[in-house]
Amino acid sequence: MTPSTYDVVLVGGGVMGSATAYHLLRADARLRVALIEQDPTYARASTTLSDGNMRVQFNIKENIQMSLYGLEVLARFGDEFAVDGDRPDPGFRQQGNLFVIDEASHDETRDGLAQQQRLGGMVEWLAPEQVRAAYPLYENLDGCVGGTLGRQDGTMSPLAVLQAYRKKAIALGARFIQAEVAEVLRDGGRAAGVALASGERLSAPAVVNSAGPWASRVAHTAGVRLPVSPTKRQVTTVEVAARPGHILPALFFPSGLYCIHEGGGLFMIGKSFPDDPVGLEDFSWERRRFEELIWPELVELMPSFDRLKITGGWAGLYEVNTFDGNAILGEWPELPGFYLANGFSGHGFQQCHAVGRYTAELILGRPHALDLAVFAASRILENRPAYESRRKII
Q: pTM (2 decimals)?
């Protein structure tokens, strides 16, 4: 079978692959770009199963800069991604993100806040009484020494963002292929394309691994070992009697517990645990994990949640970078032509705008609008972790 020939093949058609395809074709409309996705319904895609949250509140400069660029893109989203007069709306609701700060994280948070403000982020420090004023349902402030409120932060529809990138990339000339990639092909010590499960081969001098939680499996077929673990995380939706008069900020506690207000008495609740299941097949939502592991802490912090109605829930996969919890970007040093956009550990959706642009620049040899070399794939081989937190907690 004669292989089809492309300039770039992207393995994974979620938001990261679609954003990269868009930026490639925006830079050079002559490129032959194939976007391969095993499930075009995106039923198990991390993009569509995410909370859709975006924040400026990071500690590493480049993470902050990626969020600020994402905000620029969202401000012009409808115009930039219109196709045949259809202007997509991501439904970006900038209700803010409120992080509760304890004594252990105080100094680091203050340092991060200063950097966020220097770079232009609209983030402010709140005293404990101001934290309660911003979030009246949060009553037990024991251990709270303050909070940081990012007023540009918020939530949106992940599916709307994904579909906008995908449709625009296709409109610009990308070929969308429903298929499973069986192997990344090599020739003469460099990436040479992919073999599909159907037996078809696609030839390309540049292959991008944008496979999300499936990244390690894809990389393994090329002889590359990535420290990316597909980890199940779940979200529970609840309804309580309290009815705040406006949408409250998304609330994040030091333990990792978070609470996103959807309006009225509706909230999304989640928390990660060290024993969260690892694997690619389990997408079951477990009511017991909420009732036994999350609800008691939730009630202790916010007593009005002592009586609630569980209205639903879902589970999705994080692509957890077990090395340092941050993105793994760029060409794998031991396999030229094999590019990575992996390991985002829960913040990939919000970074797709900057990473898609950066990956396209790398492939095309263009100057970088934002230098993300701190996240270069080479740091894995050189044992140079880039921790978001000195406590090694994202």
A: 0.96
Is-contact 99 389, C-beta < 8 A?
no
Q: CA angle, 55 as apex, 50 and 56 as ends, to 5°?
A: 155
**Closest to 207 measured CA to CA, from 18, 335, 70, 389:** 335
- CA 250 – CA 267 distance, rounded (Å): 9
Q: How far apart are CA 394 and CA 236, in angstroms?
A: 21
Q: Where are the beta strands (DSSP E) in the chain?
A: 4-5, 8-11, 33-37, 53-54, 97-101, 123-126, 146-150, 154-155, 175-178, 181-187, 190-196, 201-203, 206-209, 228-240, 250-252, 258-263, 266-270, 308-321, 328-331, 338-342
Q: Considering the chain, what is the average pLDDT of its residues?
A: 96
Q: Would you list the DSSP string of 212-253?
A: GGGHHHHHHTTT----EEEEEEEEEEEEES---SSPPPEEE-
Tens-digit pLDDT profile for residues 81-135: 999 999 999 999 999 999 999 999 999 999 999 999 999 999 999 999 999 999 9
Percentage of the chain lying above the pLDDT 90 cut: 98
Q: Which amino acid is at 350?
A: Q
Tokens of 29: 């409309």
Q: With 70 as the cut, is the pLDDT of residue 393 above it? A: no
Per the DSSP assignment, residues forming a β-bridge with 228 are: 321
